[in-house]
Amino acid sequence: MIDLAAALGWGAAATAALSVVMGASQGLGWSRMSLPYLIGTMFASDRRRAMQVGFLVHAVVGLVFALGYALAFDAWGRAGPWVGAGLGLLHGVFVLVVGVELLAAIHPRMATRHEGPVARRRLEPPGFLGLNYGRSTPWVTLLAHVAYGAILGAWYPVA
Amino acid sequence: MRPAVRHLEAAGGGAAARFPPIGDYALIGDCGSAALVARNGAVEWLCWPDFGSGSLFAAILDRERGGAFEVGPTSAACVHRRYLDGSVVLETRFETATGELRLRDCLAATAKGGSDVLRPEHLLLREIRCVRGEVEVAVRCAPRFDYGRRAAAARDRGPHGVFFSDRGAVVVLRSELPLTLRDGAAGGTARLRAGQRARIALAFGRGEPVALPLLGEEADRAFDDTLAFWREWSARCAYEGPFRPHVLRSALTLKLLTAASYGAIVAAPTTSLPEKIGGVRNWDYRYCWLRDACFTLRALFELGYMEEGGAFFAWLLHTAHESRTRLRVLYTVMGDSPGRERELQGLEGYRGSRPVRIGNAAENQLQLDLYGELTAAAYEYVRRGGRLGPSSARLIARLGERVCALWQRPDHGIWERRGDPARHVHSMALCWVALDRLLAMARDGHLCAPASRFARVRDDIRDAIEQRGRSCGTYTSLFDGETVDSSLLLLALYGYVAADDPVMAATYRRIRRELAHDGLFRRYRSDTEDGLPPGEGAFGICSFWSVEYLARVGRIEQAEDDLARLCALSNDVGLFAEEFDPRDGSALGNFPQAFTHVGLINAALAIAEARGTRPRADVARQGPVPPRGERPQAAERADEL
């Protein structure tokens, strides 16, 4: 039986850690990948509003994924930082290979890969593995998700 | 304004023309950043994202390493320039042997609300059109991040444009002319026939995916929106007196030098344009000097720009509040310290004028006049119906306490001399002004102040000035001194002494005799020890103070003549630098200089007042708008204060 409170609590901590890693990489100029901004601009064109909405949605998504992690830990009957980190690595690879491509396909304000931008679709697309946002983007994204998984794995109490 | 001199300017130019004269640049901006465009169509100075950021284009400081964005004909051309009426959209016309090109440049104004379209943080728009004949056009965009210290990583991403990136910042170039990427620069040539045109756009983003720049009709729309924004802003100018075109251009320049998000106004958008060609007096002016507060505020209010004045005043209060009344000389637009002054190695400097500096060591000097400036600005604000919140009132009153504690200390004075501190008469007079205005505000119920103590110290200051700040019937620069300097003109303009007072009149005559040449005033005698090798031009603002003084003593025709002569020294698009070369009136120092333009506005206002010409009643009647910056934090701060 999933420990909902623990999953959500540690999920919030893990999401915060992921946001810190991604935000720090932006601040240090390693990557321009901003998941809150990418998500937020699906709903709003104003930068500030987009960031507000994006952070909220990203946090909710982080909690939902935490439930998934908790289900996986319970199903396996074991957790721990290495197990969590491994799951986070898989999660990160999925985000890079599938997630950003999917986002680019459904994002209403993102320019398509092969055509020039138009007024309503002018956001720079991420490209393969998000490399358009900086050469370090894949590594930073993987690191952030590994940290996310490691935190959940380390502290989620498996029944 | 100088007529559009017909220059025959060969593209590329020889060694003597490697650096255009400082006055050959025009300014475009978006109230957050600004670019200088040379007469040949090259953007040679641009700092993104903010005025104080590292440069993207700095060919004005180093022809090889600085980076530039060139658009123009490949053949020699006669050049004419102008701003489109009531705007800061720059139009440059190139007349060549085979035809005529028209280049329009602007930094796009950000539309306020109502739009569902993502926009880049900054956007430079350029449109080149052939209006006659057939002309070959060359484009070359070579960004160099951080004052040319780092070449950008460049990548051509096809329909999305050419990307230049560096440490989380990215600029994206898109063009309707075919460009190829080579050696870190995107460039190409094309022939345009009459009626053909091409748009080129450069967008900036940092830390996030960037909104790509648009071409075609969307670029036209952005041009139109920008033009409309500036024309609407110009239409709010309440001034209808003499020299109106110059006053309006000065107001537009002030607006260009405003960081609208914060309400702050930078002294100039450039660093290290020299006060003497080849000299060392090269300073970074991309900061906000508190000294400029009162006159700037007065200029904005008198012209009817209440919102800008309110935002600027809110910024002043915010910085004073953050400084806990220990005022610094200058601040960044965000109200922070600019940091240590540094010399940039490796940049050749404008016409060999080294060092190139960033930061400004004057920030930590003690300059007592700041207290008078800030207090006088507060008085200007409340005099026009503005209201101080309780904490703002306490803050302003505490400035008086600081004055009482500090006024007897030597300081570095208005001219920021880098030698030993001294007791400057101008600084003392502004201390007097601080207490005088505080007492007036207390009397009118705007704040609470220890009136008897302030009045006693105010009188002590006056006694000290009158006993030790005069010699041979004139005021002097220093206590127990013999010489004069142009800051003494401010004693009359701030009301420390009546303009027609015999001592003040004698002081003016002496300043004019000793420091002025052809209506151009130096700050002080060239042999004055100021801690630096000698050599600087005539100071623009001092020359305008003289005009204002003349208007105040009723010598209106002389004031008008002097102002007309000064206006004739602006460049072809009406801009002034910090200084004039007294030999030929050419521009020296950072460019364009906000304080010089403030001086022009106030001089014209003084003439208008003396002539009885009033600002337009419908606008001038309004009180200051409660600070409401384009970003809410300015207003929030004002409320807090």
Account of the 3D structure:
The complex is a heterodimer of chains A (159) and B (641). Chain A has 159 residues and is mainly alpha-helical. Chain A is 66% helix and 0% strand. Chain A has helices spanning 4-27, 35-40, 47-76, 81-106, 137-155. In chain A, helix 1 (4-27) packs across helix 3 (47-76) and helix 4 packs across helix 5 (137-155). The longest helix of chain A is centred in the middle third of the chain and has 30 residues, at 47-76. The radius of gyration of chain A is 16 Å and the shape is elongated. Chain A starts with a helix and ends with a helix. The relative contact order of chain A is 0.21. The two termini of chain B are 42 Å apart. The longest helix of chain B has 20 residues, at 216-235. Chain B has 16 helices and 30 strands. With 641 residues, chain B is α+β, with helices and mostly antiparallel strands. In chain B, helix 6 (369-383) packs parallel to helix 8 (425-443) and helix 8 runs antiparallel to helix 9. Helices cover 32% and strands 21% of the residues of chain B. Chain B has a 16-stranded antiparallel β-sheet that branches. Chain A binds chain B through residues 26-34, 37-38, 41, 45, 109, 111, 114-120, 122-126, 132-134, and chain B through 115-119, 157-160, 163, 165-170, 172, 174, 205-215, 218.
Set out the fold topology:
The complex is a heterodimer of chains A (159) and B (641).
Chain A: H1 4-27, H2 35-40, H3 47-76, H4 81-106, H5 137-155
Helix pairs in contact in A: 1-3, 1-5, 4-5
Chain B: E1 7-9, E2 26-29, E3 34-37, E4 42-47, E5 55-57, E6 68-73, E7 77-83, E8 90-95, E9 99-107, E10 122-142, H1 145-148, E11 150-151, E12 153-156, E13 162-166, E14 169-175, E15 180-182, E16 185-193, E17 197-206, H2 216-235, H3 244-256, E18 258-259, E19 264-265, E20 288-289, H4 293-302, H5 306-322, E21 330-331, E22 342-344, E23 356-358, H6 369-383, H7 390-406, H8 425-443, H9 451-468, E24 470-471, E25 474-475, H10 490-493, H11 502-515, E26 516-517, E27 520-521, E28 538-539, H12 540-552, H13 556-567, E29 579-580, E30 587-588, H14 594-611, H15 617-620, H16 632-640
Antiparallel strand pairs in B: 1-7, 2-3, 3-4, 4-5, 4-6, 6-10, 7-8, 8-9, 9-10, 10-16, 10-17, 12-13, 13-14, 14-17, 15-16, 18-19, 20-21, 22-23, 24-25, 26-27, 28-29, 29-30
Helix pairs in contact in B: 3-14, 4-5, 4-6, 4-14, 5-6, 5-16, 6-7, 6-8, 7-8, 8-9, 12-13, 12-14, 13-14
